[in-house]
Amino acid sequence: MATDGSAAAELTFRDVTKRYAGRAQPAVDHLSLRIPAGEICVLVGPSGAGKTTALKMVNRLIQFDSGDIEIDGRSVLDFEISELRRGIGYVIQQVGLFPHMNVEANVATVPRLRGWGKQRTHERVRELLELVGLDPDGDPRRYPGQLSGGQRQRVGLARAMAADPPLMLMDEPFGAIDPITRSRLQDEFLRLHRQIRKTVIFVTHDIDEAIKMGDRIAILRQGGTLAQYDTPDAILASPADDFVAQFVGADRALKRLSLVRLSDLELEAVPSQVNGLPSAPRDASLHDALSLLLSEGGSRLLVTDPDGTPLGVARLEQIGARVSEDQAS
Amino acid sequence: MTTLIAQSGPVIPNFGGGGSNSCVRENRTFCWDWFTSHWSSNFQPHLVEHIVLTAIAVSVGFVIAMVAALFAYRRNWFEQPFTIATGILYTIPSLALFQILVPITGLTRLTAEIALVSYTLLIIFRNILTGLREVPEDVREAARGMGLTRNQILWRVELPIAVPAIVAGVRIATVTVISLATVAAIVGVNQGLGVPILDAIPTTFNTEFIAAAVLTIALALVADALLVGAQRVLTPWARGRAAYR
User: Has this prediction a pTM greater than 0.80?
Assistant: First the structure.
């Protein structure tokens, strides 16, 4: 595994099954998935659907009974277990920072295990803290007990990325964080992911988070079977069955609007008189734009660039057309 | 108790040979002159013996308890028998334990140490084990997930996090041993601050009794303060914060 490069790895589940002793249903039932290198795959489903079990089988915190899991074509069973784990970033909901180590020592955990030199480790820690939005000058000396929940999860993220692993496992990483901070961390992680392009498996029970974070979504149902595996747009447009339709929600047409940006529409020219028109930045979603139009009571929306310069006008009918297009498909 | 009677002196003794001093003759509460003039011949050597007795007992007890606790942490079945055995030792009255040991090991420092060590085991063992078990599960899981081996998790994560609990056990054990070590003199082990205390009881000489007792208490307080200081140095992360979960 190319653990020191910035490469991403392809991950494949082949017919993987796991049964816990004394349970009638398997936790994961003949799961087959291929996650292309560099993509975020979200595992989502109700509790008891085996999401976390599937995740933890990748770094062998849980042993699977049959089938195989391959990283770039090599079975995880062929790795020495510590080596396997040191090459996979691991982020959990409770973060699990080491309370007796300061931020720098926490982030440096895997580089030190791998025997990196002091200078290289130190520079890497600074780089990572900056990457996750922490202060590389003030924060490294602080202890986890002195950090807020959001800061702890940032440190957890930096720690998981420290040795530049080609694959990251994230188990409800933002689940214990207040909604405002969570939304900010989600945005920041997506921005970060565009830079680092790691393969990411992301577990959540929140379909909205799955739609927002996932390049692909794997919906699991009770008993650990795969209900549907596709892009968010395809799942919202055509759920495979009633379970998926119910799970993604009756408002899936509206949810799908959140995947489209105002900049994706064909805008009309900016009129000479723009006073009184509600306005939104071009990277706002159609979902937010519709909400704004409904609350302002208008039918036209001024689209601006991030500086506020007008770019054009979007009409309510255009957004409506997107919704009906959803329903038709 | 035969020892006590045998050592009884006259009702009005020639207190420590300081007969010329009116404070001593009248046996006032505390005679500073007598204390200072007997510091180097009486109190200082016994204080040093007391510190040595305590340091050896706590160190040996700590090593035994640590080995036992690490073993019990890996093999759960070991916890109960060790707890029961050390619990029995802990409940034997100290005077009785010293008396039992004298025929075997004689009136030696070894006798005192065996008894004192046996009182430290239960406290330190329990605290180490509790400290290890209270390491949050998510911390352990993150460590495993990052590829630390079982031993690396123990030495780099679990034991450091358990330090406050371990130090708390060592503090209780130390104060207990300092207090119990005075009993050694009663059975005839001629060591520690119990010697001047025992001297003073039959003669009712206040100064010697109070000086030895106060030195014993002061030693316990100083030892405890040093351990608190050591913990603060060892665990800067635990300062000024609520328990991390």
Answer: yes
